[in-house]
Structures are given as C-alpha cells and as structure tokens.
Amino acid sequence: MVPAEVIVLEKHTRWAPELSRQLQKDGLITRASQDAAGFRKLIVAATAARKDYITVLDPVGWPGECLPLIAWLRDREVRVVIVGTAEIELLEPSLRELGATTVLLPPIAGKEIGNTCRRLLELHPIQSRKLRSY
C-alpha cells in the first residue's frame, strides 16, 4: 500500500515539521513547498502516483496567491485544510465556498492539525474519489 501524504504550502516553515512529527507514527508522509509552483507539482505527482493525500495551506504572507490555489484544488476534488490567522476568520465562509474543507483558526496546536489530517484521510480515501488525469 502506498503511504498517504500531507502536502503543505507555507511561505515560512512552521507546520510541515510539526505535521511530520505528528503523523510519522501513522506512516503518513509530509511534503512541503514554499511556493505555489512547487506545491502544484507535488499535487500532480501524488495524483499521478494514485496516492491518497490532503493539503494544508498557510496563507500567511500570500493570501492572494492561495485563493486561486484553493479553487484549483477544488476542481481536482482535493481536500484542503486552511491554517488561518485571526484576520482570516472573516473570510472563512468565502474560503469554504471556494473549496476549503476545513478552516482552523487560532489558537492552533500541531496536534489539532495532525488530528484533522488523520480524520480527513480516514473519512475520504482517494479510492472513493473520482480519479482524473491532469
């Protein structure tokens, strides 16, 4: 069985190492990118390999770039966890409308994100989604 992945996009390394620590014992792999192009490549590679995966987006430092990514992920039926800030709270309904599966708001603990990722991977494995070529 191919291990599931958590693919993280964050401008400043924070959540990827924490998720790696949280999820390693479950056999989940954490991959991270600090730019949108690299993030898209990770998504395309995981999809081509027929891996189960979810994404975690930290919009701090680039909220405008994250909005088109959320829509791009929605079109591919990818689950999206947004690790928000207090400023993003007002945008939560719009983020969900765009395609965010979960929006976590402060205070956020690494364990909370890890549990959210585990739950989403258990509830919605890739085998139950329609697979498309990209």
Task: Give a summary of the structure in a few sentences.
The chain is of the alpha/beta class and 134 residues long. It is built from five helices and five strands. The radius of gyration is 14 Å and the shape is globular.
Topology:
Layout: E1 5-10, H1 15-23, E2 29-33, H2 36-48, E3 53-58, H3 63-75, E4 80-83, H4 92-98, E5 102-104, H5 110-123
Helix pairs in contact: 1-5
Describe the main β-sheet briefly. Answer: 5 strands, parallel
Quaternary status of these chains?
single chain
Task: Label the structural class.
Answer: alpha/beta
Biggest sheet strand line-up: 2-1-3-4-5
Known CATH architecture: 3-Layer(aba) Sandwich
Fraction of residues in helix:
40-55%
Shape: globular
Give structural notes.
By secondary structure, this protein is of the alpha/beta class. It has a single domain (5-128), classed as 3-Layer(aba) Sandwich (Rossmann fold), CATH 3.40.50. Helix content is 42%, strand content 18%. It has five helices and five strands; from the N terminus they run βαβαβαβαβα. The protein has helices at 15-23, 36-48, 63-75, 92-98, 110-123, and strands at 5-10, 29-33, 53-58, 80-83, 102-104. It has a five-stranded parallel beta sheet, with helices on both faces. α1 (15-23) packs across α5 (110-123). The longest helix is centred in the last third of the chain and has 14 residues, at 110-123. The radius of gyration is 14 Å and the shape is globular.
